[in-house]
Amino acid sequence: MMRSLYTASTGMYAQQLNVDTIAHNMSNVNTAGYKKERVEFQDLLYQIIKRPAATEEANQPVGLTVGLGVKPVAINTLFGQGNLQQTENPLDVSITGQAFFKIQVPGYEDPLYSRDGSFKLDGSGQMVTADGNLVIGAEPIEEGATDVNIAKDGTVTYLPLGSTTPEEAGKIELSKFVNPAGLQKVGANLYQATPNSGEPVDWDSESDSSVKLESGYLEMANVKVVEEMVSLITAQRAYDINSKVIQASDEMLQTATSLRR
Description:
Layout: H1 2-27, E1 37-43, E2 46-50, E3 53-54, E4 59-60, E5 64-67, E6 70-77, E7 84-86, E8 93-96, E9 100-104, E10 112-114, E11 120-121, E12 127-128, E13 134-135, E14 146-150, E15 155-159, E16 167-171, E17 174-176, E18 184-187, E19 190-192, E20 201-202, E21 212-215, E22 217-219, H2 225-257
Antiparallel strand pairs: 1-6, 2-5, 3-4, 7-22, 8-21, 9-10, 9-13, 9-17, 11-12, 14-15, 15-16, 17-20, 18-19
Helix pairs in contact: 1-2
């Protein structure tokens, strides 16, 4: 009976973590560039009460084993494409395809990476994120410039004050990874490369047509509210069922301990 108490408790803990992950997804439904997360589970070790036997004296093809519950093994980030939302802001740019913006963040020796393309200009004309971190590849834009445009290959152009000839202001750099799910989340829509993600590979617009940029658009979160609501209901029901198992096991223990009364 004590085995069922422990087994059901692992189920409650697993569903609690599942609900925590769903809540995180739902809270970021309007976060530009956010990628949804999914908890993955595995069954725990099995207690072998009787092994199957296949001998000349006995033929028992099925043994007797009892599972000991469930455990969370990973929270996987799903890097599916999010919907593009038109903003009519030329500094907003979205990525179509599996690539990341390179962002220079103080305190980090190597660049960090992001899918959030809601860029701004600081006082010196540098293209930065909402936190003021430098977008690698973009050069300063002159004061008073107009018609800022980001091409599909990342080239930034603008019209200087009093001129009709466009000037280039660098080219936004992108990187790709063999295993994006191996990137470490550091918050503020930023990821850090790890040995699990593989080394970053700089995107070459001439040789790789699977990636392109869209100026005036933002990639929204790839969270689907209906799917998350269904997952939330399922997790809640599973949590309730496991709690009922604990209650039932406790009542059976009370019955067993009161037999001699």
